[in-house]
């Protein structure tokens, strides 16, 4: 089985078109993203080490879960274009694999704050509710009883009878659809599938120069997590699935595109994520620091976002890699290919490809490699620049 290579998502302006069909532009809404380690006082070295640890954990999870099932985007008239702020989620000392948090609110008449890990590798949206087993979060869990618009999804609903999320049989006294969702890192969440009103921000003007009006989107389905256990040790309250699956947030909003700007690793500011709408002065173009470039997704029947990687160049030298090394069926079945992923901060490559890239990089830099163990050689690369006069100030 070919390995999947994972493309990094560091501080970039990213525009993802989810459908090739011509779709009328919907009014854009936004949310904020925040950075995992923002404001926690880590040094630059600590930030990089934590980034590498998360990325390795994330890659391991993606490799082991690449056979996740896929479904076509549900059909339906109308779409909701929304935006939310993105923030990088704080991680604990374990192998947490999240990078950015999206902030929005759920419920009426008083929307309740949630902070969800933005995850392009899964499709379930869930947040902690009144729990039997919970992880710590910095603000109250979602109180379904305090919302006038929370509705339980019945066991007879197709999403419950599909066999993808519910516990076996769904034989509960209140006829409520329960779900059990486990991740390859052994983390699990279970609880009720409900629907409620999600409130986002609607961008008005450039870079927040005008007030942001709330945009309420009714009947969004999500998991109301009551048993949540694993490596959830962040300032998150749950996960927002952003994959191509039918329960993901983009799918439920019926948007043809979403876009976001990621902050730098040491930046404490928030950055926007837009769902729906066309690029323009009130969308990604207002936040881009350079030209917005695009590349098409590879044809895929899976839920992940596959790209076509043509090759790797170090300096001006193209590595002699077989084009088949990049090829994949793009089916989400673990048959290779390259995906772009929200939770991976460092480019991840299969072993032989990484070793070829590493050798070319070492030859280009022309500095002695620092002493390292065999294990380090597979994940880190350090040079002894202090011993050398006239060490190069730029790297390829």
Count of beta strands: 18
SSE class: alpha+beta
Number of helices: 5
CATH class: Mainly Beta
**Spans where pLDDT lies below 50 across 5 or more residues:** 1-13, 19-27, 64-83, 86-97, 205-212, 330-334
Q: Under the CATH scheme, which architecture would be assigned?
A: Beta Barrel
Keywords: Aspartyl protease, Glycoprotein, Hydrolase, Protease, Signal
Family: Belongs to the peptidase A1 family.
Domain Peptidase A1: 100-396
GO molecular function: aspartic-type endopeptidase activity
Keywords:
Plant_Aspart_Prot_A1, signal, Pepsin-like_plant, 13-stranded mixed β-sheet, Cathepsin D, subunit A, domain 1, 18 strands, alpha+beta, about 25% strand, single chain, 5 helices, about 400 residues, glycoprotein
Structure in a nutshell:
It comes from Brachypodium distachyon (Purple false brome). Belongs to the peptidase A1 family. The protein is α+β, with helices and mostly antiparallel strands and 396 residues long.
Structure description:
The structure is a single chain. The longest helix has 21 residues. The chain is built from 5 helices and 18 strands. It has one domain: Acid Proteases (Cathepsin D, subunit A, domain 1), CATH 2.40.70. Strands 2, 3, 4, 5, 6, 7, 8, 9, 10, 11, 12, 13 and 14 form a 13-stranded mixed β-sheet that branches. Strands 1-18-15 form a 3-stranded mixed β-sheet, with no helix packed on it.
Annotate the secondary structure layout.
Elements: E1 5-7, E2 13-17, E3 29-35, H1 44-64, E4 82-87, E5 100-106, E6 112-119, E7 125-133, E8 151-152, H2 158-161, E9 178-182, E10 188-202, E11 213-229, E12 238-241, H3 249-253, E13 257-261, E14 271-275, E15 306-307, E16 313-314, E17 317-318, E18 338-340, H4 351-365, H5 374-377
Parallel strand pairs: 1-18, 3-4, 6-12, 7-11
Antiparallel strand pairs: 2-13, 3-5, 3-14, 4-5, 4-14, 5-6, 5-10, 7-12, 8-10, 9-10, 10-11, 13-14, 15-18, 16-17
Organism: Brachypodium distachyon
GO molecular function: aspartic-type endopeptidase activity
Pfam families: TAXi_C, TAXi_N
